[in-house]
Amino acid sequence: MAITRIGNIASTIPDDSIQNAKFSNIVQSKNIIINGDMSIAQRGTSTTGITGAAYNTADRFYLNMGTAGTWTNTISTDVPTGQGFAKSFKLDCTTANASLSAGSYMTIQQRFEGQNLQYLKKGTSSAESLTLSFWVKSNKTGTYIALLKDNDNGRDISKSYTISSADTWEKKTITYAGDTTGALGNDNGASLMVYFWLVAGSTYQSGSLQSSWNSTADSAVGQVNLADSTSNYINFTGVQLEAGTTASDFEFLPYDVNLQRCQRYYYLHAKQGGSSEPIGLVIYYSNSNIQSYISFQTSMRADPSLEVGSGTNYYRIDRNNGDNQMNSFGLNISFTTGAIIYNSTEASGTAGQSGITYTNNGSAYVAFDSEL
User: Fold this and answer.
1) CA distance 107 to 201
2) Residue 282: enclosing H or E segment and its boundaries?
3) C-alpha distances in angstroms, 357 versus 82, 94, 360?
4) Whole-angstrom Cα distance, residue 14 to residue 12?
5) What domains sit in the chain, N to C, each tagged with a CATH number?
6) How many Å apart are CA 61 and CA 36, to the nearest integer?
7) How far is Cα 372 from Cα 339, in angstroms, rounded to an integer?
8) Which letter does DSSP use for residue 110 in this model?
9) What is the spatial distance between Cα 291 and Cα 101, in angstroms, rounded to a whole number?
10) Phi, psi of 342 (to 5 degrees)
11) Which residues pair with 160 in a beta bridge?
């Protein structure tokens, strides 16, 4: 037997069949978008009262906004029939803004590491075209804008599409020419971004839509105002961005593979559901300081920050035939492969003792963030 590795995925292939093995039988990814079927939502499936920028539900999909009303973001089971999708990313307007300020904006974004996109040959005479395809549904018909942004070189390209029928799933396909100017950085920084415009004030709508690569600000000319009524909503699913001038069928990845791709950027280590969930082994570094090492499921993009739910007695340590309740954790140090968290406020025990930490409240969670 031989082990063949593609990226982070290993496949066992009999020695005598290696020459005849089809590459298509090994899990691979043509889709630059991560989690385009919205199947992974580590942060949760519903967020209300949204007025600012954040990752809210579906992993890797960032909602960026300013003075664009108030929104609810959910993972919906409303999907196009017969296409294989189970979930969609939905936004509902709960407080309208029908009179936008010049700088009003609202976009859904995904950001990509430059080191994963060198095959696009951007900045050379052989630069690859890119094709974006997706399913969309809204009550608000009209013109919408989808933009690619070269973050390294300050260059954009915008294309329009039309939602023609209200409350109807429609598939859209947009092709962008390759850009022969400006190479993408060969590193783990945010080099390329895709924007789905939903709200755009006059700052972004002057002049003509820049449908070729450029460095101007007229990136959303013609965009409808999705924030002009509390009746408005929009759903997306099946988002795919790939090299070439045609859209292929959506690439469905196994759930575990999709989750691992998302965990490079955000890793939910523990979250209490119906009962307490273990966080990890701890040791009392001193009588009032506990330390716990957490190993990540996959290497993260960069040394992550710690994200925790905090509140009275949100966590506990079981140790020495007793327990110690705590409110939160701090980050001692993090690496791409793990982190040490601590508590030196509520911890109380004996130096050298060990124990196990658990969540102790329905709002308790421990996560690590290295988003772009």
Assistant:
1) 12
2) strand 278-286
3) 45, 39, 9
4) 7
5) 1-27 (no CATH), 31-263 (2.60.120.260), 266-369 (2.60.40)
6) 9
7) 19
8) E
9) 49
10) -150, 165
11) 145
Q: Over range 110-131, report the average pLDDT.
A: 98
d(CA 306, CA 340): 10
Distance, CA of 258 to CA of 237 (rounded, Å):
15
DSSP class of residue 214 equals B
Please give the structure tokens belonging to residue 46: 């519903």
Residues whose CB falls within 8 Å of the CB of residue 27, separated by 6 or more in sequence, listed in order: 6, 9, 11, 253, 254, 257
Beta-ladder partners of 145: 160
Give the per-residue pLDDT at 28: 57
**Radius of gyration over alpha carbons of the chain, in Å?**
23
d(CA 355, CA 251): 44
Q: Residue 352 — pLDDT band, cuts 50, 70, 90?
A: very high
Count of CA atoms in the C-beta half-sphere (13 A) of 274: 0
How many residues are given for the chain? 372
- Helix H or strand E encompassing 263: helix 255-263
Please state whether the predicted TM-score (pTM) of the whole model is above 0.70: yes
- Cross-sheet strand order for the sheet of 289-295: 322-326, 315-319, 354-359, 278-286, 289-295, 338-343, 330-334
CB 198 within 8 A of CB 146: no
Q: What is the DSSP letter of 25?
A: G
Contact 2, 15 (CB under 8 A): yes
User: 66: number of CA atoms within 13 Å, CB side?
Assistant: 8
